[in-house]
Amino acid sequence: MTFKKILYLTTFAACFGTFSGAASADALADIKEAKKIRIGIDLGAPFYGYIDEKMQAVGSDVEAAYLLAEDLGVELEIVQTTNSGRIPNLLSNKADLIISSLSITPERAKAVDFSIPYGAIQAAVGAPKSLDIKSMDDLAGKSVAVTRGGPQDKLVSEGAPQAKVIRFDDEAASITAAATGQAEIVAITPPIIHAIGERNPSLDFETKFVIQSYDLGIAMRKNEPQLKDWVNNWIGTNLKNGKLNQIHTKYAGVPIPDEIVAAQ
Predict the structure, then answer these.
(1) Where are the alpha helices (DSSP H) in 35-150?
(2) Sign of the C-alpha dihedral computed for residues 35, 39, 43 and 48 taken in this order
(3) CA distance linking residue 236 with residue 12, whole number of Å
(4) 110 in a domain, yes or no?
């Protein structure tokens, strides 16, 4: 055998070993060995993740992350991220998982793997109990407050073209408008509709109907079957025993949608 052949075979074997090692990587085993799990959470998303008056990270995703780490028997390290940085932080190995109000979409699923749904973000219409509103058709001729450029803006504009859409620059302005009676109807999320009712109980604000629902998943890097199976089993268990629902209700004021829980 020539020296050139020996060199070729040695190089091939080394490369094959490298690829084989990568293919057999086990993130779950690595997390257990490190005794720590790094979970990316956006702490600028009220209800899901935020900093409280004691400068502590709180929210439904934060508490769910602590529960997951506890059940896995490891320490939690929160990797603070932004909305746009959630998937990049995962792919660059800065985080092992992302639990950060991340909706499951086909486009995102090309880059990462998702768990089964653990919750949902819903676009909904809220108004005082006295108003008889059951569908998009009932919004015709009525003024509806939305956050400019948000998903509800598009949904109401396209689904209720006869409605008078009043656009506010952010969610805080939309909430204020509804809570102070500037707008009787608002298209936003159920937790915020609940918060409007708490802010001004005299309005007797309630969710009238859900326009659209987006399932939330825990994201992880691709090709980690052991980790994915563990996370899916953990979600299923904690949806069935009610722990995830208790956490969600504690922060959002409303339960996880029934269809998410019933799927387990």
Answers:
(1) 60-72, 86-91, 106-109
(2) negative
(3) 44
(4) yes
Q: What is the CATH number of the domain that holds 94?
A: 3.40.190.10
Q: Alpha-carbon distance 42 to 219, whole Å?
A: 13
CA distances from 85 to 44, 81, 94, 132, 213 (A): 12, 6, 11, 41, 23
Residue 201 lies in a domain: yes
Please give the residue range of the domain that contains residue 147: 121-213
In whole angstroms, give the CA distance from residue 172 to residue 186: 12
Q: Tally the domains of the chain.
A: 2
pLDDT tens profile 129-143: 999 999 999 999 999
Q: For residue 31, what are its two tokens?
A: 């997390």
pTM of the full predicted structure? 0.80
Q: 112: number of CA atoms within 13 Å, CB side?
A: 27
Indicate whether 231 and 114 sit together in one domain: yes
Q: How far apart are CA 77 and CA 96, in angstroms?
A: 10
The one-letter amino acid code at 224 reads: E
Region 68-76: mean pLDDT is 98
Phi, psi for residue 154 in degrees, rounded to 5: -65, -45
Q: d(Cα 113, Cα 139) in Å, to the nearest integer?
A: 38
